[in-house]
Specification:
Number of strands: 9
Order of helices and strands: EEHEEEHEEEE
CATH architecture: Beta Barrel
Largest sheet: 6 strands, mixed
InterPro entries: Peptidase_aspartic_dom_sf
Radius of gyration: 14 Å
Shape: globular
Structural class: mainly beta
Strand content: 35-45%
Number of helices: 2
Distance between the termini: 20 Å
Number of domains: 1
Helix content: 10-25%
CATH class: Mainly Beta
CATH superfamily: Acid Proteases
Length: about 120
């Protein structure tokens, strides 16, 4: 999982969607310019996709599906706030309700230089 403090849309790669057997709505395409240092393309949207962050926290959201070689999920601060999660940027921990936490590796945390803490 990648947490991008500037990200607005929720993004998942096609290879993950195919692996879990979810249906991609290819009638809705989004502009993903500037989201990556390498070219990526939107191929559609997957609706109401359940993602389990911790044993008792499953989010159900729509995700833009992009074609990229590495399996990737991109979450925004807005999404994590919606579900009561908090990021401690100094320890690189994603704190999830119910006293559980997931540690994010340094390479997966992307903080905007203009974002406030």
């Amino acid at each position: 999982m990648t947490l991008n403090s500037r990200a607005e849309p929720l993004i998942i790669t096609e290879n993950i969607v195919e692996r879990i057997g979810a249906k991609i709505d290819k009638s809705e395409i989004h502009d993903l310019e500037g989201i990556s240092t390498v070219p990526v393309e939107s191929i559609g949207v997957v609706r109401n996709l359940p993602i389990t962050l911790a044993s008792r926290l499953t989010i159900i959201e729509d995700f833009i599906v992009m074609r990229y070689r590495k399996p990737t999920l991109i979450f925004s601060n807005k999404l994590l706030k919606k579900y009561g999660c908090a990021v401690d940027w100094s320890t690189e921990e994603l704190k999830i309700p119910f006293n559980e936490k997931i540690i994010l590796s340094r390479s997966l945390c992307i903080r905007s230089r203009t974002s406030s803490r």
